[in-house]
Design goal:
three-stranded antiparallel beta sheet; flat; 456 residues; 18% strand; alpha+beta; Protein Transport Mog1p, Chain A; nine-stranded antiparallel beta sheet
Length: 456
């Protein structure tokens, strides 16, 4: 049953285009093979090593964890610098000196998220090898996150302090080797905690060993009828292989909720004029975006400038996924990396011109960023609205998009091409005026690029 369940889970992962699910299915299937061959004793022996391999499975939740870990590390480092009397300025993910003697951008890789999984695995392994009870093992494992945070604060603080005392180049040299500090803090802290637990609250080893001996009674290596079950599973795997191969060879069945350009890859070009009040100017897709996002990603974007007042601008961007779903992502991650601080989020409704049933909700972020002016540093507030569009619905959140896409793939076999629409404008004259500008530009652009679809 375990092996059949593993094969079924793999089929779900294949249809949903979630390789992670297929990896978990493979581990479950492997465990079932071991149980079939050696009984429950083999299954118990293999449970931890196979579960340990889950640390090698990439998970998107690390983006969110890394996002917050990154902000906490930056905030703590800036606080330590201020306590030491350093006038460090924080701008988004950047830390720099007011006189420009050094400037460091704490990238996502420096948040600690890359070392988090490796350290979590090592921490769990240390707990597993030193204790027999799962309560203590998991307790040791729980130390991983706070110690990783502490280690990265020490690392980034060392870089900033070196830059403060010896200049930009000195901080860069420290950055080259300071990654070892994180492992030193985490593994050192975990080993100290293990030693303290052993001395102050030793385990009842006699009871634990007795339970293990009882659980380890020998069993027949292969159960009666095991070969018959193996033949059935092999036959099922072959049938599944041919079915999934046939499914992959079918022509694309997904739809798209935005109007396509003649090349079929990109969204249609956004209008150049919105009435007589706004004029659109081309906005280039950066080389970084093209390098990071899949090659089959489509783009359409323009900066709209008010004819009567050039200071009033509205940026409209449409990103369209191809067969690879990784084109679509949470905008919060990019905004913070660009130096914006997110102050809050709300839901706002936007009208579709002439189609009341196509009114839809969008997520609106309140963001701000400091800029240098002749009068000093000034915080500039802006509003960023975003939503996602498939072939049938408009979705306001990334979480809603994820679940709707998974449901469409599994229940209907329909992998839609999702579009991610973003609208951004200044809010220096108030949020009401900013939302009004967004709606005015959308009134003239929505019918050109987005189909009149109901909200989800």
């Amino acid at each position: 049953a375990t092996m059949v369940g593993g094969r079924g889970l793999h089929a779900l992962g294949f249809v949903a285009q979630q390789a992670r699910i297929s990896i978990v299915a493979f581990l479950i299937f492997t465990w079932g093979v071991l149980v079939l061959a050696g009984g429950r004793r083999w299954g118990r022996a293999a449970a931890f090593p196979l579960a340990f391999m889950l640390f090698a499975v990439p998970v998107n939740v690390l983006d969110s964890v890394g996002f917050w870990l990154r902000l906490w590390v930056i905030e703590a480092t800036a606080g330590l610098a201020h306590l030491a009397g350093f006038a460090v300025v924080r701008n988004g993910t950047q830390l720099f000196a007011p006189d420009g003697s050094y400037q460091y951008d704490v990238a996502a890789a420096c948040s600690g998220v890359r070392s988090l999984m490796a350290l979590a695995a090592l921490t769990l392994l240390i707990g597993y090898l030193n204790f027999r009870g799962w309560g203590r093992r998991l307790g040791v494992w729980a130390l991983c996150l706070p110690l990783t945070y502490l280690g990265n604060v020490v690392r980034i603080a060392a870089v900033v302090f070196a830059g403060q005392w010896f200049g930009q180049r000195a901080g860069e040299r420290v950055h080259e080797w300071a990654g070892f500090l994180v492992f030193l803090v985490v593994l050192g802290g975990v080993l100290l905690a293990v030693e303290a637990l052993r001395r102050r609250w030793p385990e009842d080893r006699e009871r634990a060993e007795s339970l293990e001996l009882r659980a380890g009674r020998t069993e027949a290596p292969v159960r009666r009828g095991g070969w018959r079950a193996a033949v059935w599973v092999v036959g099922l795997a072959g049938a599944e292989m041919f079915f999934l191969g046939w499914l992959a060879g079918l022509p694309p069945r997904g739809g798209v909720g935005v109007v396509l350009a003649t090349d079929g890859k990109n969204p249609v070009e956004l209008p150049t004029f919105v009435g007589t009040e706004w004029i659109g100017r081309g906005a280039e897709v950066t080389a970084v975006e093209r390098a990071i996002l899949p090659a089959d990603t489509g783009y359409a974007r323009k900066n709209y400038v008010a004819v009567a007042d050039g200071a009033r601008r509205v940026f409209v961007s449409v990103v369209l996924s191809g067969r690879d779903r990784t084109s679509i992502h949470r905008p919060e991650l990019c905004l913070v990396g660009q130096g914006w601080s997110i102050e809050g989020a709300t839901r706002e409704d936007f009208d579709y011109p002439g189609r009341g049933e196509a009114r839809f909700a969008a997520t609106v972020l309140r963001v701000k960023r400091e800029i240098v002016t002749p009068r000093g540093r000034v915080a500039v507030p802006e509003l960023v609205a975003y939503w996602f569009v498939d072939s049938e619905r408009v979705v306001a959140t990334n979480g809603g998009r994820f679940w709707r896409d998974a449901w469409n793939r599994l229940a209907h076999g329909r992998p839609d091409r999702w579009a991610y629409v973003l609208v951004q404008t200044s809010a220096t004259d108030g949020e009401e005026a900013a939302l009004g500008r967004m709606q005015a530009v959308l009134a003239g652009t929505l019918p050109a690029f987005q189909k009149p679809l109901p909200a989800w």
